[in-house]
Design brief:
- The chain is an alpha+beta fold.
- It has one domain (2-220).
- Helices cover 38% and strands 25% of the residues.
- It contains 8 helices and 10 strands.
């Protein structure tokens, strides 16, 4: 029993060290050459286990993601200010709209291997600054690259990206089939971090949890 506990403690320590090093070692190692004035303001949103990227809505963004409106996402509501994107495990995302509805099977799939979905939400004004919101100014070329990265995360069917039928937590959000598989090591927060690097920002080398991504963004951006 003592040996098992010792191995468990060593495993926990190794994971903690990996998370800390993942936040402290920057990716990319060297800052990119500045592309000019940051004219686009994006937001990163977090809760205890998940992060999203919020993009300000304008006519260009509406055209870029017109397929979302075609699937019923109300991007033209008067108070819409942001479109919020998140990538995550299918079972956990679809079956856990609130913490009170947490179930064992979605958690098990999230810790092992699961299909993935994109969650897209229309939001009004978002308070920035806020402890759970980080804002960044990026240039136009990096903004376009970020939109391309997000669009490429949607799995394509015969008629384009595929909405998950009868999905969503409210009137203002939808789920779509996504590329890739979700697990605890390569999950929603590593997807967010990769998107931010596409946008010209630096993150930690490996950011599996929101707090490590937050640390690295404060260190390098």
């Amino acid at each position: 029993m003592r040996r098992a506990l010792r191995y468990l403690a060593m495993l926990v320590a190794a994971v903690a060290l990996a998370v800390a090093l993942g936040a402290l070692v920057p990716r990319p190692l060297w800052p990119a050459i500045a592309e000019g004035e940051g004219t686009r303001h994006i937001l990163v949103l977090k809760n205890p286990i998940h992060t999203d990227i919020a993009v300000p809505l304008d006519d260009g963004v509406r055209r870029r993601f017109a397929f979302l409106a075609d699937a019923g996402l109300p991007m033209d509501v008067p108070d819409a200010r942001y479109i919020v994107f998140g990538w995550g495990g299918r079972a956990f995302y679809l079956e856990t709209p609130t913490w009170s509805q947490l179930k064992a099977v979605p958690v098990l799939k999230a810790l092992t291997l699961d299909a993935s979905v994109m969650h897209v939400d229309v939001a009004g004004a978002i308070k920035d600054p806020h402890p759970d919101v980080a804002g960044f100014d990026i240039g136009e070329a990096h903004f376009v690259a970020l939109l391309d990265y997000i669009a490429a995360s949607f799995r394509q069917g015969p008629n384009g990206p595929m909405v998950v039928e009868n999905s969503g937590y409210s009137t203002y959000d939808r789920f779509y089939e996504a590329d890739g598989h979700f697990n605890a090591l390569v999950g929603c927060n590593t997807w967010t971090a990769a998107g931010l690097r596409t946008a010209g920002l630096r993150t930690g080398w490996w950011n599996p949890i929101p707090v490590s991504l937050w640390w690295s963004l404060r260190l390098y951006d």
